[in-house]
Specification:
alpha+beta, 60s Ribosomal Protein L30, Chain: A, Phosphoribosyl-aminoimidazole Synthetase, Chain A, domain 2, 2 domains, 6-stranded mixed beta sheet, 4-stranded mixed beta sheet
Length: about 325
């Protein structure tokens, strides 16, 4: 693996870097003008609304310096696409802001841009513009993603109602387990399990196909970025309800169980770890057949994990129905 944290590398000038590495990523976006302007245009179809989301990633917080540059790029794009997925939006374009420390050189940037290019093709999205600066601090990158939804159909956090059921896609805790492995924590795993967990940390899979199908079906939704309990807490707070989660029903992967186990503490750790970028959502109880149908169409497992009640906050229950205290329900920056 190439190391990018030793001597000061060669780096193109700002505008040469944009023209060589990033303008090609905007070639299919007519409103980007080849990244030669300070702004871009994005035309929406008839009765569509624009959805805008932004996430910043910081070295040492969201990724490690030794992570491959292409996976850092893909993660930055995918966490924003995950936000669009939870809104039921279709990706239309994105803006990129880079704050580059001195250890970043042309080779690193070329691999970073190549990663973006691969995911642009995978998710049918184009770069529209952005900004580059230098920084004495850690590598920081920010992406603003633009999406479209039919007018009035964006899935909000605030629509959960008492009587709704709570669902989540995929499995929970994998990314946190992958980060623990990268930091040297836990028992020795099989090569397959280790690669799976690290992959889930470095390369989250935005559930775009599922999100599009949840529009008009889910009453509220959020992507699992800070932690399952924390993000359900955002839904509970904005919807003015209480969400009850059955710990035993939280879906866990075999790899995560191999690392952390399946006891009460392991489930709590998985439910608060974050970075899974699955979709947690609520829906009426009678929507179960429709949810099973969209799960099959989107090719992703969906698990029912709880219910919505009158009240406030999120409560995690064990198999006896007793609360499991969660002092820190998820990741917070401050």
């Amino acid at each position: 693996m190439t190391s990018f944290n030793s001597e000061t590398p060669k780096r193109l000038s700002e505008f040469a870097m944009i023209a060589k590495l990033f303008a090609p990523l905007a070639a299919n976006a007519k409103g980007a003008f080849g990244l030669t302007d300070d702004a871009a245009t994005l035309r929406l179809d008839g009765d569509e609304e624009l959805v805008v989301t932004v996430d910043a990633l910081v070295e040492g917080v969201h990724f490690l310096r030794d992570d491959p540059p292409d996976t850092i790029a893909k993660k930055a794009l995918r966490v924003n696409l995950s936000d669009l997925a939870a809104k039921g939006a279709r990706p239309r374009g994105y803006l990129l802001a880079l704050s580059l420390p001195i250890w970043i050189g042309d080779e690193w940037l070329a691999r970073f841009a190549a990663g973006l290019g691969e995911d642009q093709e995978k998710y049918t999205i184009d770069l529209l513009g952005g900004d580059t600066t230098s920084t004495p601090g850690p590598l920081t990158l920010s992406i603003t993603a633009l999406g479209a939804v039919p007018a009035g159909r964006m899935i909000r956090r605030s629509g959960a109602k008492p009587g709704d059921r709570v669902f989540v896609s995929g499995t929970i805790g994998d990314a946190g387990a992958g980060l623990a492995l990268l930091k040297g924590g836990g028992p020795q795993l099989s090569e397959q399990d280790g690669a799976y967990l690290i992959g889930r940390y470095r390369l989250p899979e935005p559930r775009l196909a599922l999100g599009l199908r949840l529009s008009g079906l889910a009453s509220a939704a959020a992507d699992v970025s800070d932690g399952l309990l924390a993000d359900l807490g955002h839904i509970a707070e904005t919807s003015h309800v209480r969400i009850v989660v059955d710990a035993a029903r939280i879906p866990l992967s075999p790899g995560m169980v191999s690392l952390w186990g399946h006891d009460r503490g392991a489930i709590l750790r998985a439910a608060t770890a974050g970075d899974d970028y699955e979709i947690a959502f609520t829906a009426p109880e009678d929507s179960r057949p429709a949810i099973a149908k969209v799960a099959g169409e989107a090719g992703v497992a969906i698990h029912e994990i709880g219910r919505v009640e009158d009240g406030e906050g999120v409560i995690l229950l064990d198999e006896k129905g007793d609360p499991i205290p969660a002092i820190h329900p998820g990741f917070t920056h401050f």
